[in-house]
Amino acid sequence: MSDELIQIETPFAFNEENQREFDELIGRYPIKEAAMLPTLHLAQNQTGYITPAVMKYVAEQLEVSVMKVKDVVTFYPMFFEEPVGDYVIRVCHTLPCALRDCKVVLEHLKEKLGTDIASETNLAKGTTADGKFTLMKVECLASCDVAPVIMVNGDLHKNLTPEKVDELLAKLAS
Amino acid sequence: MVEERRILYEHLDVPDINTFDVFRQYDGYTRFEKAIAEYQPEDIAKMVLDSGLKGRGGAGFSTGEKWSFVPKDIKPCYLCCNADESEPGTFSNRYVLEKNPHLLIEGILICCYAMGIETTYIYIRGEFTLGKKMLDAAIKEAYEQGYLGKDIRGTGLNVDIYSHPGAGAYICGEETGLIESLEGKRGQPRNKPPFPAVEGVFRKPTVVQNVETLCNLPFIIGNGVEWYTQMGPTYADTRFDPPKPDANTGTKLYCISGDVNEPGVYELDLGLTSTELIEVAGGLRGEEVKAVIPGGSSAPILTHYELDTRLDFTSLTLAKSMLGSGGIIVMNETRNIVDCLLNIMKFYAHESCGQCTPCRWGTPWVRDIVQRIADGDGRKDTITRPKFGVAENGRWGDTGETEEIYEDLDLLESVANNIANVDTMTWNTICVFGIAVSWPAVSYMRKFRPEFEATIREGKLVTLPVAEATVPPEENYAYQQRFVPKEFADL
Ligand SMILES: Cc1cc2nc3c(=O)[nH]c(=O)nc-3n(C[C@H](O)[C@H](O)[C@H](O)COP(=O)(O)O)c2cc1C
Ligand code: SF4
Ligand code: FES
Questions:
Q1: Which residues, listed in sequence order, are joined to residue A156 by a DSSP beta bridge?
Q2: In a 10 Å sphere around its CB, with 0-12 CB exposed, 13-18 middle and 19+ buried, how is residue B461 labelled?
Q3: Closest by alpha carbon to A174, among A87, A95, A106, A63?
Q4: Mutate which of A75, A141, A149, A157 to test chain B, going by most B C-beta atoms within 10 A?
């Protein structure tokens, strides 16, 4: 992808705090490119999702081509290329959670939020109209002992039931 | 009942054990100090080899042996700690990271001292937000206390530890996928050889070790090899002359989930049976065990006839399964095996990295076949085979026996075996993800064939009673091998 082909709406740059963190990060590796994942995480935390501007900026910082950054972004499910809600709700649906009725939790969330489940290529599908929540399915979150589990942004919620989901949503909405 | 033996997890629930001061009160870092005061690096490597410690991450490869492959003359050498825990059913590393991260740091220090390593990357799963926070705080403290950094405690030893977040791809748990990902690329596994021990991250020798494996090191050094080898069975493999000891030493953090009353992590000596483990985990939730997955979702399933198989590396390998990551998933009589397989195949179809054609196309194909069967559209046919015998009219002739054939089951096995063949243990792929796909696919189907057949026949998901759903032991391809043969007698 050459630079002219990328539509840059708003340019991106790290804020002061992230810049400091980035400077520290880059010293950890013998090659700059290795800082790719932590750098993308930093950027995504700042903007909410990875825009073309972010990719261009990261490519410049790490001295690699934009294509390489794009290549990485598309590979990893945790990087979003579209806007997501303020709260990203990840519902685990792998076997141990399935054995503990994660379907009930998922259906309940769908009904309560009035949205479908996002797919990796269509995040808007799982995002509520007010832009508050994005609902998605994920694979085993390594918490099968407290199944069924969901993650809301960085926080894990265990042993869920529809009632607990209601409580949680009420708390998040306030 | 088998007793828990908490070693790695002994102080897990001590309040504030995640802080340096409290960890220190519980012998923290004294084993590392002992290592540098009393032993040469070679002695440590020898002790680890003699302890029989096997990797806890999945492959179960001898840790000491792996270290011996690392060339001594190429520097720098790196340590990558695999904290990508994403095998479904596994959750023991998470608790170490969240509650007792200093133990991992101590293990890493011992490994670094033994191998002359100065830089360690802890590749931590992207979803482990809390784990990373706790780990980073512990690393910071260890630097402040002079246990990390330059010239540690005046010994001239330099060790740096950095945590490196993943971003949600299961395949980055595979060691070469992890290395690629650490280098800032897609986590696509590399062809082996060269193995990481010779050429790993940044094209330098690299030791890749699971969190649990590294956490064993302080105890091997602290309490000695003799103490360590008392735990768990050591078999004597008499196929070698002289008989080669096959160690299954130490404790294992068994993660048990699914249909048990008290799912969780239980630290037990290696070598107990599934029945015993279920008892430890508060007993079965339900009436009857239908199946047990012994080592994370990649491991071939065990039927209720096979519950007396010991859950250790050797016994499970002989039973044509594996201990893998030690994630044990229990299913009771209400579970439908077709449905369970569908769930697992969706997982693998989603997680294939897409590099090799058999895996990229074969895995979704297997998933689609299972989906079709589960939806009630499984393909079957009735064929009439010519068979000569005494016909109804009393004369010699064609008795025209008809037979049901289940095309989709044959197709399922054929596609799976073409990704990786479970009988010959050969694979057509770069990494053993291929085996992780075909193992469950073929083992579920072969061992629970009656349930698959009934589902196809009836055109809807049919859950048979346990005894009917399972093929009898004499027809089970893995049953005969499952006992540790006499020549493997306890050493
Ligand atoms: C598909 C696949 C996924 C794996 N996932 C993990 C994992 O999440 N964590 C882990 O420690 N090892 C995992 N492994 C095993 C690693 O490749 C490697 O064997 C292990 O990290 C070596 O460390 P150990 O010897 O201490 O077990 C995986 C292997 C494969 C093939
Ligand atoms: S076997 Fe599958 S996961 Fe492994 S390298 Fe090939 S495509 Fe990737
Ligand atoms: S299956 Fe949901 S946390 Fe493991």
A1: A151
A2: middle
A3: A87
A4: A75
Topology (CATH) of B20-229: Rossmann fold (3.40.50)
Contacts of A138 in chain B (CB under 8 A): 127, 168
Residues of chain B with CATH 3.10.20.600: 238-332
Ligand 1 centroid from CA B172, angstroms: 9
Could you list the beta-strand ranges (E) of A79-129: 87-92
Domain A87-173 has CATH 3.40.50.300: no
* Interface residue A118 vs chain B (CB under 8 A): no
B435 CA closest ligand 1 atom index: 31
What end-to-end distance do the CA atoms of chain A give, in Å?
A: 43
Residues 2-31, chain A, touching B (beta carbon < 8 A):
28, 30-31
Q: Which residues pair with B330 in a beta bridge?
A: B258, B292
Q: Which CATH number fits domain A3-75: 3.40.50, 3.40.30, 1.10.260, 1.10.10?
A: 1.10.10
Using the structure block, give the residue that is written with the tokens 């499984």: B378
Q: Do A144 and B183 touch (CB under 8 A)?
A: no
The verdict on domain B337-488 having CATH code 1.10.287.470 is no
Of A138, A139, A144, the CB nearest to B263: A144
A37 DSSP 8-state letter = H
Nearest to B94 among A38, A76, A143 (CB): A143
d(Cα B56, Cα B85) in Å, to the nearest integer? 11
For A30, the closest of B86, B88, B202 (CB atoms) is B202
Rounded to two decimals, the pTM is 0.94
CA dist A23 and B482 (Å) reads 55
**pLDDT at res. A59:** 97
pLDDT at position A7: 57
Asked if B258 lies within 8 A of A62 by C-beta distance, the reply is no
- Determine whether the interchain pair B183/A33 forms a contact, defined as Cβ–Cβ distance below 8 Å: yes
- Tell how far the Cα of A148 is from the centroid of ligand 3, in angstroms: 7
- Distance between CA A128 and CA B388 in Å, rounded? 68
For residue B187, the CA-to-ligand 3 centroid distance in Å is 22
Per-residue pLDDT of B335-392, as tens digits, reads 999 999 999 999 999 999 999 999 999 999 999 999 999 999 999 987 777 777 787 7
The CATH number assigned to the domain with range B238-332 reads 3.10.20.600
Res B111 pLDDT > 50? yes
CB environment A13-33: b (16+ within 10 A), e (fewer): ebeeebeebbeebbebbeeeb
Q: Burial letters for B63-102: b for 16+ Cβ neighbours within 10 Å, e otherwise?
A: bbebbeebeeeeeebbbbbbbbbbbbbbbbbbbbbbbbbb
In this structure, the residue with its CA closest to atom 18 of ligand 1 is B175
State mean pLDDT over B221-233: 95
A67–chain B Cβ distance below 8 A for any pair: no
ipTM of this complex prediction, to 2 decimal places: 0.94
Distances (CA, A) of A19 to A22, A23, B96: 5, 6, 31
Write down the domain spans for chain A.
3-75, 87-173
